[in-house]
Amino acid sequence: MQDTKGFYSIIDYTVDGAQTQRELIDAFAGLQEKWVRFYPGYKSAHLFASTDGTRVYNIIHWESETAHREFERVSDNAARIAAIQGVIDGLKGKAEPRMSGPPRYNLVREVVPGPRPIDA
Prior knowledge:
- The chain has helices at 18-36, 65-74, 77-90, and strands at 7-15, 42-49, 55-62, 95-97, 104-106.
- The chain is α+β, with helices and mostly antiparallel strands.
- Strand 2 and strand 3 form a beta hairpin.
- The chain is flat, with a radius of gyration of 17 Å.
- The two termini are 21 Å apart.
- The model has no long low-confidence stretch (mean pLDDT 92).
């Protein structure tokens, strides 16, 4: 079994098309570079665009929930949140968050490539 340690913040937006997807992904990447990637415990951000042009996922991987919570404790949350809102307000199209609560997740299980099981 693979190492399943890690903590994720999964940010989910609906958008009104492929152009807005590209704008939002570029903006989220810029926000990661400016506000997040240099904090201890940050591992990566993966930005996904749905093939139908309607969704964007930003999956941020942290070493642990503790590292993420420390980031939230010491970072300039108000300015970072304002920067996110500024990105949303500045889009040519429309983007709306789909999270109903804090987007925090622990990785519980991962299935990785391996040999085909032999039927018993």
